[in-house]
Specification:
about 300 residues; Rossmann fold; 2 domains
Length: about 300
């Protein structure tokens, strides 16, 4: 059967393996749609999205519309007469866009839908202490992450995983699932299904995470704080004010040996200013392993304490 003509929509690095696997398998990708270049980093230098960089390296045509409902953009999109659109880590599409292709618009989401609908499913799965997550391909409809499920793959969350390590595995697993889904669409063997109905109070959400959401609450259990830190590492990163100074916290452990230390109150600090910093919670202590003082580089705790004291 002739391969489908596919328009690809994406932004972040998470989308690159999915686009690459389609190119490697000979699919016709006449157009890649991504966001306009924008200021990034400390210097606020205007830079392209990761998917634009990849598309340029592979000589793919690129469109960067600022308004997805603009009639000139929609007219251009219609002219390509794509069989299918594939969306990975992009933005909300209007009906005029997702409903255009013959086979609709396929989206890759980094959770086991209907759980963790939203912008940050990998973060929230770890923050909530989940032991398993996965990736889902589904067809877009009028609501966010609610369309018919095409295929699903599971992935275990290890106790030492953070967002970075899980992200790397899911982007590869997701790319393979996108390819598998498209092949089933071509062979007319895909049997999509409605998402399971789950009571509203049992649905776990994955909203976008803001800086103010990342402050560590020491009036919580050590287990919850441990998951919170790894669920935000390396980005957007958990943080705390310690002795009136702002620190990003990248890695922690749970310290349970109370024979070596007094019982700490939540937020109370114990350190020898040489090799450890322990901070109290509602049960055990948290041992800080990697942190970043404001305006400085990140460092392990021994390197930090060589030049700093608490």
């Amino acid at each position: 059967m002739k391969k489908l003509k596919i328009i690809f929509l994406g932004t972040s690095e998470f989308a690159i393996p999915s686009l690459k696997i389609l190119l490697d398998n000979g699919y016709d990708i006449p157009l890649v749609i991504t966001v306009p270049d924008k200021p990034q980093g400390r210097g606020r230098k205007v830079l392209p999205s990761p998917i634009k960089k990849f598309a340029l390296e592979n000589n793919l045509k690129i469109l960067q519309p600022s308004n997805l409902k603009d009639e000139s953009f929609l007219k251009t999109l219609r002219e390509y007469k794509a069989d299918l659109q594939v969306v990975v880590a992009f933005r909300i599409l209007p009906r005029e866009v997702w409903n255009m292709p013959k086979f609709g618009t396929l989206n890759l989401h980094a959770s086991l839908l209907p759980q963790y609908r939203g912008a940050a499913p990998i973060n929230w799965a770890i923050i909530n202490g989940e032991e398993q997550t996965g990736v889902t391909t589904f067809f877009l409809d009028d609501n966010i992450d609610t369309g018919k499920i095409a295929l699903m793959e599971y992935e275990n969350i290890n106790n030492d995983d953070n967002v970075g390590t899980l992200y790397e595995r899911l982007k590869i697993k997701g790319a393979n699932l996108v390819l598998k889904t498209i092949k089933q669409i071509e062979n007319n063997t895909l049997k999509s299904k409605e998402q399971p109905k789950i009571e509203k109070q049992l649905l776990k959400k994955a909203p976008k995470i803001k800086k103010e959401d990342c402050e560590i609450n020491w009036n919580d259990t050590a287990e919850n704080i441990y998951n919170f830190v790894r669920g935000l590492s390396p980005i957007p990163c958990a943080w705390s004010i310690l002795k009136q100074k702002h620190y990003k916290i990248f890695k922690v452990d749970i310290y349970k040996d109370e024979s070596k230390m007094k019982r700490l109150k939540p937020g109370e600090i114990l350190t020898d200013n040489k090799s450890y910093i322990y901070i109290g919670t509602t049960n055990y202590a948290i041992s800080i392993l990697t942190l970043k003082p404001e305006g400085k580089r990140s460092m392990n705790i021994k390197a930090f304490l060589m030049g700093n004291t608490l």
